[in-house]
Amino acid sequence: MTLLDKTHNPHLRSWVESANVAGCDFPIQNLPFGRFRRTGGSDAALRIGVAIGDQVLDLRAAGLVDHDDMNALMAAAPAERVALRQRLSDGLAQGSTQQAAWAAALVPQSACELAVPCKVGDYTDFYTGIHHATTIGSLFRPDQPLMPNYKWVPIGYHGRASSIVPSGTTFKRPSGQTKAPDASEPSFGPCKRLDYELELGFYVGPGNALGQPVGIDDAEAHLFGVGLFNDWSARDLQAWEYQPLGPFLAKNFASTVSPWIVTMEALAPFRAPFTRPEGDPQPLPYLDGAANRAHGQLDIVLEVLIQTPKMRADGQPPARLTLGRAKEAAYWTAAQLVAHHTVNGCNLQPGDLLGSGTLSGPTPDAAGSLMELTLGGKKPIQLPNGEQRTFLQDGDTLVLRGWCERDGAVRIGLGEASGTVMA
């Protein structure tokens, strides 16, 4: 578990003035990593950058790295990451002797093309949101919303890394097989029940060798950081195909990630205890540890907004669909996901992505999908401009946002993950 140090000092200010604005996602206490190139340079290699205010610090131009391989940086040992964070904090702080040199290495975010923050070799999606699992389960199995294994084992499936796309990417409505309850055979056509899923993505840092499990007490040393993750879902395709082997075409057409990875070090002030409700089983020993119990959860506020074509045409801002907290939604911690993923000897690699699963809170307004908000499409939601939605329509844009705030600490943000549905 990472500890507080001078980089978290709430009184620290940067010579990059936009980083000192109250409510800024990227103050000097954050320093998230990503990959970028200047807008219009589509043939240029992606470079490693750190977000500071409304700017990006080019790490190679600043002399902090001698390569453009984000995955290699993520593979570094935690002590090396801490040392780099301290160098960044010192160099970007007011009064730094690096100001003149590093100012030339800044690029406005508005002048950047931001990519998926690393090369994602493998992607596993978990199902840690217990309120989501209970609500979805009750729609299909009213007598048994949760399967017997849910509270004992972190449920997950292997996803498709090739269709992970960066924030701002449009994607086409998927097509596939569906079967109406009263039909004698399935039909083929565009998805009619397109949905979003509000998730966090945990990025693996140093990997583990094949056959060598990662213990719960060492699991966080194998995590680099966290980003926003929207696992778009075709609910009608999913209902027909998911048994007996689970999600396939309903999930692999697009998954949107935010362009910045907020490091585990930056999240140190925003940890929360891991607890189980009274009467629930306690984790098996390989999923249980004192540090994980003390501060294994992440206290991140999560928000989802929608902007329809009509709202854009009328100049109206996006409207909120969801507001909740990750610590109230997740039944398992990130460390437990790593420990479970590797307990059979599975080898994780730098840049691998672990999705949290839909992080729905305990109240209806904290639901992380339209499937829950509309009770499976039976109860349309009313938008502020009078429009209604049961599922997403062509032209709709979804925006995921996340941030951390707590007394005695500077607010930090995860940026946003946005995507637009095309016909």
What is the topological layout?
Elements: E1 33-38, E2 47-52, E3 55-58, H1 70-74, H2 78-92, H3 99-103, E4 106-108, E5 112-114, E6 123-126, H4 130-140, E7 156-158, E8 164-166, E9 169-172, E10 175-178, E11 187-190, E12 194-195, E13 198-204, E14 223-230, E15 233-234, H5 235-241, E16 255-257, E17 262-263, E18 271-272, H6 290-295, E19 297-298, E20 301-307, H7 309-313, E21 319-325, H8 334-342, E22 353-355, H9 370-373, E23 381-382, E24 388-389, E25 397-404, E26 412-422
Parallel strand pairs: 6-22, 8-16, 9-26
Antiparallel strand pairs: 1-2, 1-5, 2-3, 3-4, 6-7, 10-11, 12-15, 13-14, 13-22, 14-16, 14-17, 18-19, 20-21, 20-25, 23-24, 25-26
The total beta strand count reads 26
Span between termini: 45 Å
Mean pLDDT: 96
Largest sheet: 8 strands, mixed
Q: How much of the polypeptide forms β-strand, as a percent range?
A: 25-35%
Number of structural domains: 2
Task: Evaluate the radius of gyration.
Answer: 21 Å
Helix content: 10-25%
From the 3D structure, determine the CATH topology of the largest domain.
Answer: Fumarylacetoacetate hydrolase, domain 2
In CATH terms, what is the architecture of the largest domain?
Answer: Alpha-Beta Complex
CATH level-4 homologous superfamily of the largest domain = Fumarylacetoacetase-like, C-terminal domain
Helical/strand content category: alpha+beta
pLDDT below 50 for ≥5 consecutive residues: which ranges? Answer: none
Shape by Cα distribution: globular
What is the count of helical runs? 9
Query: Which class of the largest domain in CATH terms?
Result: Alpha Beta
